[in-house]
Design goal:
This protein has 21 helices and no strands. The chain is mainly α. The chain has one domain.
Length: 455
């Protein structure tokens, strides 16, 4: 009898997971609809009553609530910092110091991409980087696909931050404290940043040779008088115009930029040191940043409204994931799926299943959505690896590091489509140009994570 129940839970659990993955891949329903309705229907079919399902939902929601609050206020905070142009002077400086040198432009692109991704929003990274750097790339006859590759790579590594989508998803699935989960990733990010600079140098020299060949063949004519300052000034002018068009105007007085920088450092330090949970650090940060930068209630609330859609969308997805995970975990469906998988899997594979899946993380980004990867696949792999004594965090790190680099080569990424449009590029050509560089980079970074003991 117990065996029949286990088989039935396994079948229903797999149907729930495959149904959600299929609907997400086919773009038939939103993640919110799929991850709420399907698990509840599945739980009813599995024989659970409404009282039991209510407990599943309550426990699942409680599991993700801290992450939801953090997401809302982190997106609001960094949205405000982007609005006031906190990072713009640095970007202008990086454009100027390139002096038209192809290799230095590639390095600067990587650095600017890292800075721009600090808000955890891929769309704003492309909005900031592509219009700022594309004129320079055109002037130097550099490939727009190199620009997309370097921005995608930089954004992927920095996206490991706690308010980045993949990190929050992974921590939510394994029920880990977000900051405790993130801290071991800092050295991985540092190694990743160093590897990006090295790759930017390599690709920069390769691009320089390509440009020289085209010039020698008479395809292009090189200019010896690239007006870097004009390009940098155009970037600042465009940012100032965007701010001027906004209905609410930020305050402007001496020392304000430094005050915002100090506030940002204080918020991040408070969070990282564990003095306050991330959600409360960002709550306080938003409460200070709004009156510091905007005068009057109306202006302050307009800034909240401007960034509310992004904050609400991510918060809703995480809450929906809480329903999905609550049903699958509390009903024992995930446990039964893992036991069934172990029974049919070759013994030598099971202890390394998390690493194997991590190695194929980037190709999986072309086949499945981010939500499906973290909320459907990660729980199963984590359950399987746990039976072999592998820590849940180790499984999550392996799958996330292996996958996160491919975020912006996937056609399932809306932010990438924005970047493709801004660069007047082609999605197919971008995948062809960037895919193997990004996949190779992810495998190397995964290897470093294993060497330093993170995995």
């Amino acid at each position: 009898m117990q065996g029949d129940i286990s088989i039935w839970l396994t079948i229903v659990g797999l149907v729930i997971i495959f149904s959600i993955v299929g609907l997400l891949i086919s773009n038939k329903v939103s993640p919110i609809v799929g991850m709420i309705i399907i698990p509840i229907i599945g739980a009813l079919i599995a024989g659970f009553g409404f009282q039991e399902i209510a407990v599943f939902l309550e426990k699942g929601s409680a599991q993700v609530m801290g992450v939801v609050i953090m997401f809302i206020f982190a997106i609001l905070y960094f949205g405000i910092m982007q609005d006031i142009g906190l990072f713009n002077p640095f970007i202008r400086f990086m454009i100027v110091i390139t002096r038209g040198n192809v290799v230095i432009v590639a390095i600067a692109t990587a650095l600017i991409g890292m800075i721009a991704q600090l808000d955890g929003a891929g769309a704003s990274t492309f909005l900031l980087c592509i219009p700022a750097l594309l004129p320079l790339y055109k002037e130097l006859h550099m490939s727009r696909y190199l620009l997309l590759l370097l921005v995608a790579l930089s954004a992927g590594v920095i996206n490991m931050i706690p308010w980045g989508g993949p990190t929050a998803r992974a921590a939510t699935v394994i029920e880990a404290d977000l900051i405790e989960y993130y801290l071991p990733l800092i050295p991985v990010q540092a190694i990743g940043a160093g590897l990006i600079i090295l790759l930017a140098v390599l690709l920069g020299f390769r691009e320089k040779r390509r440009i020289a060949k085209r010039a020698a063949a008479g395809e292009i004519q090189l200019s010896n008088n690239v007006n870097i300052h004009a390009i940098a000034d155009q970037f600042m002018l465009r940012q100032n115009e965007e701010r001027a068009q906004a209905k609410e105007q930020p305050r402007s007085y001496k020392g304000l930029s430094w005050m915002n920088l100090i506030l940002t450092i204080a918020v991040l330090s408070t969070m990282m040191s564990g003095l306050l949970a991330p959600q409360y650090a960002f709550m306080i940060g938003v409460a200070i940043a709004l009156p510091l930068n905007y005068k009057g209630v109306d202006s302050q609330m307009e800034r909240v409204k401007a960034h509310a859609p992004n904050a609400l969308m991510m918060a809703a997805v995480i809450l929906a994931a809480g329903v999905f995970l609550g049903v699958l975990n509390e009903s024992d469906m995930l446990k039964q799926i893992a036991l069934a998988a172990i029974a049919i899997m070759p013994g030598f594979v099971v202890p390394y299943v998390h690493i194997i899946v991590g190695i194929f993380g980037v190709p999986m980004d072309l086949l499945t959505s981010t939500d499906a990867y973290y909320f459907a696949l990660l729980p199963i792999v984590e359950q399987i690896a746990t039976t072999q004594g592998v820590a849940a965090t180790s499984t999550a790190y392996a799958m996330m590091i292996g996958n996160i680099i491919g975020t912006f080569v996937s056609p399932f990424s809306p932010a990438l489509w924005l970047g493709i449009g801004l660069a007047s590029a082609n999605m197919g050509k971008h995948i062809k140009y960037s895919f193997f560089w990004l996949w190779g980079f992810s495998i190397v970074l995964l290897g470093f994570a294993i060497l330093i003991g993170v995995i």
